[in-house]
Design a protein that fits this description.
Keywords: Allosteric enzyme, Carbohydrate metabolism, Glycosyltransferase, Pyridoxal phosphate, Transferase. Its cofactor is pyridoxal 5'-phosphate. It is a single chain. It contains 32 helices and 25 strands. It has three domains: about 90 residues, no CATH class; about 375 residues, Rossmann fold; about 325 residues, Glycogen Phosphorylase B (Rossmann fold), CATH 3.40.50. Strands 1, 4, 7, 8, 11, 12, 13, 14, 18 and 19 form a ten-stranded mixed β-sheet that branches. Strands 22-21-20-23-24-25 form a six-stranded parallel β-sheet, sandwiched between helices. A three-stranded antiparallel β-sheet has the order 15-17-16. It has about 800 residues and is of the alpha/beta class. A hairpin with a 2-residue loop joins strand 16 and strand 17. Bound molecules: ligand 26Y. The site of ligand 26Y has 18 residues, from helix 6.
Length: about 800
């Protein structure tokens, strides 16, 4: 439509009338939200159609990003911004007495992921579209998103996240694009002369139905697709599903993200999910490809499939199955195409997160896929024999000790393996995947993660955005690297004050939110010290907690340093439901919070706020208000981290170990503009190699550590006897796996430096400015351009602005 404020107002009133037969003043926020989103959707739909047609006519290569998690958060604001409508719509609604921010709050987060990996997938979707690149998402439409977290008596309780209950205006069910996925049963190979035909017995057939969501590019007319699969009973199979249990089994397939894997049934379900979305995705890609292209022998030139962590690793075998079994290609030709199509990102070096599946489970879930993996493995061993030592082949082959090693399958079956930050990629090459690096050095590359400045600055922080527009113009909105122009203003008091003012306003807004949610009153004079990420031992929320307890005891014992600065500690974190240690940490944080917040002697000096249900939309409220960003994982353990990037972009200063992308952040801002502490990766590895870390000695020999740790077990921190003891034991008796005690002193020292620095406001604001300026270097638009050039070999369509 011809777009201006008046036209929009008319359109809005008409649509509200059509949909609900209501006037603006009688409509609920929910009705207003659904009205607005329906206008937004009907306005981008023709671009969606055009983009799709263009890709087809153009016939160039397309990429499909396969991910078991997508974490887009809310879509309304981001669609409005990317369409270039945000300000006009905000204004128009104001004329109608409607507050856009209020309506936006109605939308439930699309939370089909846990954390970093899922959020990265969604940032990449946004950036692919915004760079005008032909890239689509492929995943699962979970009926329930990641659980909703509540605290009851300080304990984490998990409630179902019913994100679909009031409808999802952004998705389109595409019945006609359904495919059938085969699970379980038995398979025999029958010799048909020139090929072997697999004959299936007793397999379960599942109808996979796609739900497509538009991914609107930033003011460029490109609208890509994220396709998520639902599971249904095919009508031809209805007769086989006689009991409620049988029917429920199909529903369960897409019911929850990460089913409880403490039982085998949960693990099997998880592997079924992985095969389900991989098979549905590849079938739909191949069907589309065959319609518009001639030769399957060239599929590698036209299609790229990206394996996001190992969860979609069966893609390798599924594409082989289709090429060999259904297209009757020779194994060698099929293999060549498969390796050309596939690429893989590793997101972790933590051994427990590298998937391994028992052969018997794989057999049960999809016997033909197991056969194909066995054949890939056999050929791999055969090919490498004589070229590499036997133990090296044993370490790299796919199947070992009756386990299918999914990372090995992903690396062997693809042409590219990348890590997500410099240090992480180095660790992959030198250590975790060293054997593969020796075999295939050309396959390894680094792609440091990125974030979308549109969501994390333009949408989440309009206050700062306005300041930036005034100081350096609006170019940064298209190209975040232009934020570096800010560096010229390092000594410009006006700009420094404006940045500080924007921060203050954001702190005021968060303070109100905190009071509304928790009843806790916090002072905006205090340093807002933020740690937001999944709760995991290696991320060391415990180190932060020990620091808090130390400060509390100091104040109680009258030992406060002269330059002590009041602080508000803000946590956001979910623990995996069966991760008991992480849950014990949550309980202790909550009890420390109770103790600190209700002690009149402490007053405004310290407050501890653990916000419930950390998610994308909550992050958007916290991040703009942060002064300190806690990035304190044990060096070598955090592959990259991305909250570090979001927080610096919003002017927070980073307290960090030399881990993940913190290293690149330090390289940009310089040592003077970041607070680095703790062991380095080399020092950690020295301890591993020499086996000479004895955490008990730290407890024994350091008065300060003893004082803090004893508080966990001597009743000082009330109501967490058992949890306090568990934590105490892990740090003393069980040798403190993540070197919390080793890094404690260094951490306390750097925090004292933070206080000293904060007491000089002007200097603090200068540091903050430098961080904002370099925050633009971590744009996912740039990251995705590098994927496009180095890994996928895709480029934007020539006619870029096809709007
Ligand atoms: C298989 C199962 C145990 C599993 C489930 C979830 C394994 C891994 C994951 C998720 C991993 C994840 O989110 N990794 C994070 O990826 C981010 C994006 O690359 C990184 O920034 C972050 O350091 C890493 O922990």
């Amino acid at each position: 439509m011809d777009f201006n404020k008046e036209v929009f107002k008319e359109k809005f009133k008409n649509r509200l009338d059509e949909k609900y037969a209501l006037d603006v003043k009688d409509a609920t926020p929910q009705e207003l939200y659904l009205t607005l989103s329906s206008i937004v959707r009907s306005s981008y739909s023709r671009y969606w159609r055009k983009t799709w047609k263009k890709y087809m006519e153009d016939g160039k290569k397309q990429i499909y990003y396969f991910s078991i998690e997508f974490l887009p958060g809310r879509l309304l604001m981001s669609n409005l911004l990317n369409m270039g409508w945000l300000e006009t719509v905000r204004d128009a609604l104001k004329d109608l007495d409607i507050d856009l921010d209020e309506i936006a709050e109605v939308e439930k987060d699309m939370a089909l992921g846990n954390g970093g990996l899922g959020r990265l997938a969604s940032a990449f979707m946004d950036s692919l579209a915004s760079d005008g690149l032909p890239g689509n998402g492929n995943g699962i439409r979970y009926r329930y998103g990641l659980f909703k977290q509540k605290f009851i008596d300080g304990y984490q309780i998990e409630l179902p996240n019913e994100w679909l209950d009031s409808g999802n205006p952004w998705e389109i069910r595409r019945e006609s694009k359904s495919v059938t996925v085969r699970l379980g049963g038995k398979v025999y190979l029958v010799d048909r002369g020139n090929y072997l035909e697999p004959v299936y017995e007793d397999a379960q057939l599942i109808k996979a139905v796609p739900y497509d969501t538009a991914i609107v590019g930033y003011k460029n007319g490109t609208v890509n697709t994220m396709r998520l699969w639902d599971a249904e009973i095919p009508s031809s199979e209805e007769a086989k599903y006689r009991t409620i249990e049988q029917r429920r089994e199909v529903e369960d397939l897409v019911s929850v993200l990460y089913p409880d894997d403490s039982k085998e049934s949960g693990r099997i379900l998880r592997l079924k999910q992985e095969y389900f979305f991989v098979s549905a995705g590849i079938q739909s890609i191949v069907r589309h490809f065959k319609k518009y292209n001639k030769s399957m022998n060239k599929i590698g030139e036209y299609i790229g499939i990206h394996i996001n962590d190992t969860h979609p690793a069966m893609s390798v075998a599924e594409l082989m199955r289709i090429l060999v079994d259904e297209e009757h290609m020779s194994w060698d030709d099929a293999w060549k195409q498969t390796v050309a199509v596939m690429s893989y990102t590793n997101h972790t070096i933590m051994a427990e997160a590298l998937e391994k599946w028992p052969v018997h489970i794989m057999q049960q879930v999809q016997p033909r896929i197991l056969q194909i993996i066995q054949e890939i493995d056999r050929r791999f061993v055969e090919e490498k024999q004589g070229k590499y030592a036997r133990d090296m082949i044993e370490r790299t082959r796919i199947i070992k000790d009756n386990q299918v090693r999914m990372a090995n399958l992903s690396i062997i079956g693809s042409h590219s393996t990348n890590g997500v930050a410099k240090l992480h990629t180095e660790l992959l090459k030198d250590d975790v995947l060293h054997d593969f690096y020796v075999m295939y050095p050309e396959r390894f590359n680094n792609k440091t993660n990125g974030i979308t400045d549109r969501r994390w600055l333009q949408i989440a922080n309009p206050e700062l955005s306005k300041v930036l527009d005034k100081a350096i113009g609006t170019e940064w909105r298209q190209d975040p690297t232009k934020l570096q122009k800010l560096l010229k203003h390092q000594n410009d008091n006006k700009v420094l004050n404006q940045i500080a003012n924007a921060k203050l306003k954001n702190k005021e807004r968060l303070a109100k939110f905190i009071e509304k949610e928790t009843g806790i009153k916090v002072s905006t004079d205090a340093i807002f010290d933020v740690q937001i990420k999944r709760l995991h031992a290696y991320k060391r929320q415990l180190l932060k907690l020990m620091h808090i307890v130390k400060l509390y005891l100091d104040i109680k014992q009258g030992k406060v340093a002269s330059d002590f600065q009041p602080r508000v500690f803000i946590f956001g974190a979910k623990a995996a439901p069966s991760y008991y240690y992480a849950k014990a940490i949550i309980k202790c944080i909550n009890e420390v919070a109770n103790m600190v917040n209700n002690d009149p002697e402490i007053g405004d000096k310290l407050k501890v706020v653990f916000l419930e249900d950390y998610r994308v939309s909550l992050a958007e409220k916290i991040i703009p208000a942060a002064n300190i960003s806690e990035q304190i994982s044990l060096a070598s353990k955090e592959a990259s981290g991305t909250s570090n990037m979001k927080l610096m972009l919003n002017g927070a200063l980073t307290v960090a170990t030399l881990d993940g992308a913190n290293i690149e952040i330090k390289d940009y801002v310089g040592e003077d503009n970041i607070f680095i502490f703790g062991l380095t990766k080399d020092e950690v590895y020295d301890y591993y190699n020499n086996g000479n870390y004895h955490s008990y000695d730290y407890y024994n020999n350091h008065e300060e550590i003893r004082r803090v740790l004893n508080a966990f077990v001597d009743g000082t921190i009330p109501n967490c006897q058992a949890e306090g003891q568990e934590i105490f034991d892990s740090l003393t008796k069980y040798n403190d796996e993540y070197f919390v005690l080793r890094d404690f002193e260094s951490y306390v020292n750097i925090q004292e430096m933070v206080d000293r620095t904060y007491s000089n406001k002007r200097h603090w604001n200068q540091m903050s400015l430098v961080n904002i300026a370099y925050g633009g270097m971590f744009s996912s638009d740039d990251t995705i351009k590098r994927y496009a050039e180095d890994i996928w070999n895709i480029s934007p369509l020539k006619d870029e602005k096809h709007g």
